[in-house]
């Protein structure tokens, strides 16, 4: 009789040396294969949107060519009149954001990746105006995970890739108030799955690495970091320790 882990095994592309093109992998193995390399990627990030456009509109058009799911086509047609220019996006930001969140549902799984990427693109257009939306995004992602996404490695990767891009695009503003970020993400950081806690710890450590010294010296920041679970905290400690060593080495070379 198959064990629970074997029963959940699915056929996946074989990335290791060998003749077999596909191999069966358990859920745990598929989670281990997740690579969220936004913070370490050497790929160039598009510096500016197309002339007269916006990052959101460019992303929407790009995904319309890549995604033919009925739900996303419907969203595209609904959204295009609202995003013709950046000033229009700024004016309609609440409506656009609300419509994006309403599409974060497991039943529309084929549309989830473009919706998640559009959230990141919107953050790049709005910048500091996007920050008040963070608690609602975090709550929506928790709901998405609870509704079954936490058993879907591919969507987990899409989810935290989008979240990581948001952290990267907004880091200039987020590092000014780390306590706010930690409060806004507390439900995600407390999510009862080790791998979710690890992904969140990596995102937090990215902000800590770039935060000014006065932010890191505050007692509130330390207390909120301690609100991470044991797994998340140990992962955060390891990443932050590496950052501290790197900073020490850089100081010694100066």
From TrEMBL:
It comes from the Eukaryota. GO terms for cellular component: 90S preribosome; small-subunit processome. Signal peptide: none annotated. InterPro entries: ARM-type_fold, SSU_processome_comp_20. This is U3 small nucleolar RNA-associated protein 20 N-terminal domain-containing protein. It comes from Fagus sylvatica.
């Amino acid at each position: 009789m198959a064990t629970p882990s074997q029963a959940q095994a699915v056929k996946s592309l074989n990335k290791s040396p060998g003749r077999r093109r596909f191999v069966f992998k358990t859920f745990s193995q598929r989670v281990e294969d997740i690579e969220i390399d936004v913070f370490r990627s050497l790929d160039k990030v598009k510096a500016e949107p197309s002339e007269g456009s916006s990052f959101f509109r460019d992303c929407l058009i790009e995904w319309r060519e890549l995604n033919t799911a009925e739900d996303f086509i419907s969203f595209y047609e609904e959204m295009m009149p609202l995003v013709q220019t950046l000033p229009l996006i700024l004016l309609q930001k609440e409506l656009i954001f609300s419509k994006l969140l309403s599409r974060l549902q497991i039943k529309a799984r084929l549309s989830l990746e473009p919706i998640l990427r559009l959230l990141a693109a919107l953050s790049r257009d709005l910048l500091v105006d996007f920050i008040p939306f963070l608690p609602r995004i975090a709550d929506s992602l928790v709901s998405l995970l609870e509704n079954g996404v936490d058993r879907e490695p591919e969507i987990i990767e899409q989810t935290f890739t989008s979240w990581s891009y948001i952290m990267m695009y907004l880091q200039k503003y987020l590092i000014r108030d780390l306590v706010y970020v930690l409060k806004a993400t507390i439900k995600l950081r407390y999510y009862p799955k080790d791998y979710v806690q690890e992904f969140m710890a990596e995102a937090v450590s990215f902000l800590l690495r770039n935060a000014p010294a006065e932010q890191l010296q505050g007692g509130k920041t330390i207390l909120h970091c301690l609100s991470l679970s044991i797994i998340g905290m140990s992962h955060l400690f390891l990443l932050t320790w590496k950052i501290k060593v790197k900073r020490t080495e850089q100081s010694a070379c100066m």
